[in-house]
Amino acid sequence: MSIIKSKSRKIEVNGESYRWLVSKCRKWWSGDLSIAIEKSEDGRKTLVVDPGFARPNKFTTADLWTGIVKPANVREYIIYARENGWDPEEKGSALLLIWEKKILTNDIGQNNWISKY
C-alpha cells in the first residue's frame, strides 16, 4: 500500500518525515476510520492505525464515540509503533496498530482495514 501524496499530510517526528492520511473503513456507513502512515522517503511498510473512535457522520449513533485526528495523535502513534518494532523502511505488508489495546500486529484482515474486536 502506498499513500497518495496529494491527499496526505506531512509530519516530522524525531527528525524523520512521514505522510499520513485519514481514511474511512470500507464499510462507509459504519463510521469507522483508520489512519495510514508511512515514511515520506523510502517508505515501504505502511502503519495502519485503528484509533478506537469513529468519524462523525450522519450514520453514527449517539453511543458511538467520535473524535478528531490531530497531528499530536499521529505523532504519538508513530513514536509508539517505532518503539515497538515498526520499521517503515522494511519491505513487507502493512502493520495494524490497535491504539486502545496498544496492539501492533500483521493481522489486518481480508475484508476491512479495521480489525473488529
Architecture blueprint of SSEs:
Layout: E1 9-13, E2 16-24, E3 33-39, E4 47-50, H1 71-83, E5 95-98, E6 103-105
Parallel strand pairs: 4-5
Antiparallel strand pairs: 1-2, 2-3, 3-4, 5-6
Relevant terms:
117 residues, 1 helix, 6 strands, six-stranded mixed sheet, alpha+beta
Strand content: 25-35%
Gyration radius from CA atoms, angstroms: 14 Å
Assembly state: single chain
Mean pLDDT: 78
Tell how many strands the DSSP assignment holds: 6
Low-confidence stretches: 26-30, 110-117
Described by the principal axes of the CA atoms, the overall outline is globular
Short description:
This protein has 117 residues and is of the alpha+beta class.
Would you write up a description of this structure?
By secondary structure, this protein is α+β, with helices and mostly antiparallel strands. The protein contains one helix and six strands, in the order ββββαββ. The chain has one helix at 71-83, and strands at 9-13, 16-24, 33-39, 47-50, 95-98, 103-105. Strands 1-2-3-4-5-6 form a six-stranded mixed β-sheet. A hairpin with an 8-residue loop joins strand 2 and strand 3. The longest helix has 13 residues, at 71-83. The protein is globular and about 35 Å long. It starts with 8 loop residues before the first strand and ends in a 12-residue tail after the last strand.
